[in-house]
Write a structure and sequence with these properties.
heterodimer, A: alpha/beta, five-stranded parallel sheet, B: five-stranded parallel sheet
Chain lengths: ~160, ~120
């Protein structure tokens, strides 16, 4: 996202004889800002990497709890990236018994409520049968297929990065 | 884009899980972003660099060959935890590429310098 910002040319108090500023033109320039800017002064941008499958390991459950905690403290989550067995979190065919929680729908709700981007690595997903095309399409809504480059880009743009294995 | 210090921490044996192979894919992708990349092998991860790996009998891809090409990707900061290596009966000569052996203190320093650590 490009944002127009003004460039402060001089700093100093007028009238003290330090700097005289007469009709100084304001100079504007374009500054590259990260797509999701932190909202308050002390809040930070997070990227979360989930390598753990739902149900059979606790990692993605912990990641989900962590994301909620981060958001509740006023921070921002730039992107949750699903890699390795973590891509199974995007399998729409997952249907646990009624009295158990469903992480797939939990992630979807999180994305809808907080605008968190859910990205799934295409190579890891196709190796594990999570696809978004054709008759066997099983990529859950709100999840987006993308590549590892999006993970690296997100890490570069974020203040904090954390992996859940 | 600002340059960041990114560490790839390899702790998994090469073929027992997909971790090592998928970590390598992340490493090669990260190298394309002009960041300051460091790679550390520790625990069972040191087996990833064992020379003369042969995966034919198990019909597995021998991705270890790619480690020899890391210098082409300008990945030159490659460290191996000396304790992990020694406790598995391995020596520096058993590894397929030239690495720097580091002790726990040096490893701690390396970790502290990073902006992001990818743990596999």
């Amino acid at each position: 996202m490009w944002k127009l910002v003004s460039l402060p040319l001089f700093r100093g108090r007028v009238g003290e004889g330090v700097i005289k500023i007469i009709n100084l033109p304001t100079i504007f320039f374009l500054e590259k800002r990260s797509a999701t800017k932190a909202t308050t002064k002390n809040s930070m941008n997070f990227t979360v990497l989930v390598n753990s499958p739902p149900f059979s390991r606790l990692g993605s459950n912990t990641a989900f709890q962590f994301c909620n905690a981060v958001l509740s403290k006023g921070h921002h989550i730039h992107r949750v990236f699903f890699y390795c067995d973590g891509v199974l979190n995007a399998n729409n065919f997952i249907s646990p018994p009624q009295d158990e929680s469903n992480l797939v729908t939990d992630w979807q709700s999180l994305s809808k409520q907080s605008g968190v981007e859910l990205m799934v690595c295409v190579a890891a997903a196709s190796r594990r049968g999570v696809v978004d095309e054709g008759q066997g399409k099983n990529l859950a809504p709100e999840f987006k297929i993308s590549g590892l480059g999006q993970l690296i880009e997100s890490i570069i743009q974020s203040d904090r990065f954390i992996t859940f294995n | 884009m600002a340059s960041k210090k990114i560490l790839l921490l390899n702790r998994s044996a090469p073929h027992a899980s997909s971790k090592a192979q998928e970590a390598l894919d992340v490493l090669l992708m990260a190298s394309a972003f002009d960041q300051q990349i460091t790679v550390v092998f520790m625990d069972d991860g040191v087996f990833q660099l064992k020379s003369n790996q042969n995966t034919q009998a198990r019909s597995l891809k021998n991705f270890s060959q790619a480690f020899k090409a890391l210098s082409l990707y300008e990945i030159e900061n490659i460290f191996v935890d000396e304790d992990s290596l020694a406790s598995r009966g391995l020596k520096k000569e058993d590894l397929m590429i030239n690495v720097e052996l580091v002790n726990t203190q040096k490893l701690t320093d390396i970790f502290k310098q990073q902006d992001a650590i990818l743990n596999f």
